[in-house]
């Protein structure tokens, strides 16, 4: 049987998963890889900004509370740099509205999800943010 020619297929969308819990990053990497995404990981905001500047993922899944640099500081840094200002950032938090920076984090992100995030919910939200914008008036 001839091998399928993949040279003209669209490249997989890249996602940067940022969370200080390695087990959670692993779980999300497995889900995302299974769904066809290219996945990179970072354990804190500083690592995330460096990875985003270097590889420019399509989407960043950013936790709010992390050591070294928190998610809000990382998103602010990404938004202020022309290389990454247009990245889609999905914020993720287990603290909900009780975290002092929740409102600012929610405003800085394109979308905010509260942990725990079910696989189906994550996939639906990823598809939503990846959907091409509908042209006005058509």
Describe this structure in words.
- There is one protein chain.
- The protein is α/β, with parallel strands linked by helices.
- The protein has a single domain (14-129), classed as 3-Layer(aba) Sandwich (Rossmann fold).
- The protein has helices spanning 22-34, 45-55, 71-80, 102-108, 119-130, and strands spanning 14-18, 38-42, 59-63, 88-93, 111-114.
- It has a five-stranded parallel sheet, with helices on both faces.
- Helix 4 links the parallel strand 4 and strand 5 (111-114).
- Helix 2 (45-55) runs parallel beside helix 3.
- The longest helix has 13 residues, at 22-34.
- The protein is globular and about 35 Å long.
Shape: globular
Q: For the terminal residues, how far apart are their CA atoms?
A: 44 Å
**How many beta-strand segments?**
5
The CATH topology corresponds to Rossmann fold
Amount of beta strand: 15-25%
User: How many helices in DSSP terms?
Assistant: 5
CATH class category label: Alpha Beta
Structural class: alpha/beta
Helices and strands, in order, run as: EHEHEHEHEH
Main sheet properties: 5 strands, parallel
Unreliable stretches (pLDDT < 50, length at least 5) are: 1-9, 134-138
Helix content: 25-40%
Number of domains: 1
Mean pLDDT: 86
Oligomer: single chain
Strand order of the largest sheet: 2-1-3-4-5
* Second rung of CATH, namely the architecture: 3-Layer(aba) Sandwich
Q: Mind telling me the CATH superfamily name?
A: Response regulator
Radius of gyration: 16 Å
């Amino acid at each position: 049987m001839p091998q399928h020619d993949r040279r003209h297929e669209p490249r997989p969308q890249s996602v940067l998963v940022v969370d200080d819990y390695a087990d959670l990053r692993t779980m999300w990497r497995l889900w995302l890889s299974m769904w066809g995404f290219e996945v990179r990981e970072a354990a804190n905001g500083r690592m995330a900004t460096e990875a985003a500047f270097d590889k420019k993922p399509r989407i960043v899944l950013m936790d709010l509370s992390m050591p070294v640099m928190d998610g809000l500081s990382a998103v602010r840094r990404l938004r202020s740099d022309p290389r990454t200002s247009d990245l889609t950032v999905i914020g993720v938090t287990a603290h909900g509205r009780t975290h002092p920076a929740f409102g600012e984090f929610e405003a800085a992100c394109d979308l905010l999800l509260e942990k725990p995030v079910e696989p189906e919910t994550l996939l639906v939200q990823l598809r939503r943010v990846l959907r091409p914008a509908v042209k006005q008036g058509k």
